[in-house]
Specification:
By secondary structure, the chain is of the alpha/beta class. Helix content is 40%, strand content 15%. It has helices at residues 15-26, 45-52, 79-84, 95-100, 105-117, 130-134, 138-149, 179-197, 199-202, 218-222, 239-248, and strands at 3-8, 34-39, 59-62, 89-92, 121-126, 162-165, 206-210, 229-232. The protein has an eight-stranded parallel β-barrel with strand order 1-2-3-4-5-6-7-8, surrounded by four helices. The protein is globular, with a radius of gyration of 17 Å. The two termini are 19 Å apart. Bound molecules: 2-phosphoglycolic acid. 2-phosphoglycolic acid binds at residues 8, 166, 171-172, 210-213, 231-235. 2-phosphoglycolic acid (PGA) binds next to β8.
Length: 252
């Protein structure tokens, strides 16, 4: 399975800086056998698209969307709007949205379903908190998040979905989850997918890891069985550093 690395800018870079980031990143030498995407704020998607020109790398991702098609939902952006200018992926259920915007599993399931229906690959973020891990509840919590989020999704389609396992305590903390622990969680997540879609199909769904991934540890994640890529925040804010990280993701 081709690995996937996504840069998540979070709430950084308006249109001016977004254009500059894309142009700088386009100058980087990139590995061929890795899919690369960049998740940018809504307002910066047009500038990122314009700076990409005809280039298709990195693929463009949004960071959120709303589930309804259109209507009286002030401030929201629908999947069909994102599709209009070629957004290929979209994050949903990032732990920061669960924490700061009160997103629930049900909302996340509806968002993911709407994205897939509009030919955008949903990247569903799930993850345990430090307290849940301490209590030994982390597997149960994450499995339940996954089961809820995939309720409306199909797996046997040209528009697959991606699961991003991001332990909340590892995000932005400089304390990444040890690859073996991440692998154990990925195995558990794949079990949930297999239950719904069957073992063969579940093997084709990418489960990526996120949380303090950087240029030094990326290779270890990418070479750990069952980890199909990475979602990178802080270490991807500088386009040159993200280029370095992408190169470091493949064995020399
Ligand atoms: P981080 O963020 O790489 O800065 O830990 C990852 C994420 O939240 O997607």
């Amino acid at each position: 399975m081709k690995k996937l690395i996504i840069s998540n800018w979070k709430m950084n870079y308006g249109p001016i800086k977004a254009g500059a980031w894309i142009r700088a990143f386009r100058r980087e030498r990139l590995p061929k056998d890795v899919d690369i995407a960049v998740a940018v704020p809504f307002v910066s998607l047009p500038a990122a698209r314009a700076s990409l020109g005809r280039a298709s790398i990195p693929a463009l991702s949004a960071q959120d969307c709303f589930w309804a098609e259109e209507g009286a939902y002030t401030g929201e952006i629908s999947a069909s709007m994102l599709h209009e200018f070629g957004t290929e992926m979209c994050l949903v259920g990032h732990s920061e949205r669960r924490a700061f915007c009160g997103e629930t599993d049900d909302m996340i399931a509806k968002k993911a379903g709407s994205l897939q229906a509009h030919n955008i690959v949903p990247v569903i973020c799930v993850g345990d908190t430090a307290v849940q891990r301490k209590k030994g509840e982390h597997m149960k919590v994450v499995k339940a998040q996954v089961a809820a989020a995939i309720a409306m999704l199909k797996a046997d389609t040209k528009i697959p979905f991606v699961i991003a396992y991001e332990p909340v305590w590892a995000i932005g903390s400089g304390k990444p989850c040890v690859p073996q622990d991440a692998r154990d969680m990925h195995v558990a997540i794949r079990g949930v997918l297999a239950k719904k879609f069957g073992a063969t199909t579940s093997e084709k769904i990418r489960i990526i890891y996120g949380g303090s991934v950087d240029t030094r540890n990326i290779l270890e994640y990418m070479t750990t069985m069952g980890i199909d890529g990475a979602l990178v925040g802080g270490a991807s804010l500088d386009p040159r550093n993200f280029g370095l990280l992408c190169r470091a993701a493949v064995p020399a």
